[in-house]
Description:
Elements: H1 8-21, H2 25-38, H3 42-54, H4 59-76, H5 79-82, H6 85-99, H7 102-112, E1 125-129, E2 138-139, E3 156-159, H8 162-171, E4 179-185, E5 190-191, E6 207-210, E7 214-220, H9 228-240
Antiparallel strand pairs: 1-4, 2-7, 3-6, 4-7, 5-6
Amino acid sequence: MEFNPHNLVIQLCMQGMALEDKGQPVEAAGLFLRAWNEAKNDFEKFIAAWYVARVQPDVSDRAKWYETTLELILEVNNDAVKGAFPALYSNLAKSYEELGDFDSAKKYHHLASAPASQPSDKGPFYHGTRADLQVGDLLTAGRNSNYQTELTMNHIYFTALVNGAGLAAALAKGEGAERVYTVEPTGDFEDDPNVTNKKFPGNPTRSYRTREPLKVIGEATEWSRLTPEQLQQWRKKLADNQGEIIN
């Protein structure tokens, strides 16, 4: 399943997170449980179970929900969710420590500490910008951030979701037209830590970064454009976000 912010389960979880931020955990828990009941596939169930688990007041129930989450992530088994494994294992280890099950806690601590592997996502990959590029051009790190102009980026960013690249193009600095290019990594890449396990578990937006150049191999023309109102909302959200960029 492709991550879609308009998906009912995703929207319910986002609403639940907003209630958590307002200090309303009981109401948030109700929305997370509703998301679980509305979920129609393993990906949706995985997302919902993650949030149901973390709001359980009873540690035994929390461990059971995290175990359910683990079963679902194994069923989904794609790059959109693999980034959640370390955090999920850590949550399970902590839950079992609280329960006094130190053998299970040790097992999950060991799994959580395993080195992260390079994503196996095969793409196609996209990069959104307002720059006028040609097939064969190389996109490299070392440019200023679109979101913190004083910051020089050590990586170049890309995604496997064309609509995600379209959003990046709409938010990019400059006066040029929004462009989404099909790109090919020339070296190793990793999950973007600025989004992975932030709002949602794993890397559902399939966002990546690399220190090596991206080669432009084509241009996409079809993606969901933002309305002027949506673009204004996104720009306000970015302006209000004072979080540090992991560079």
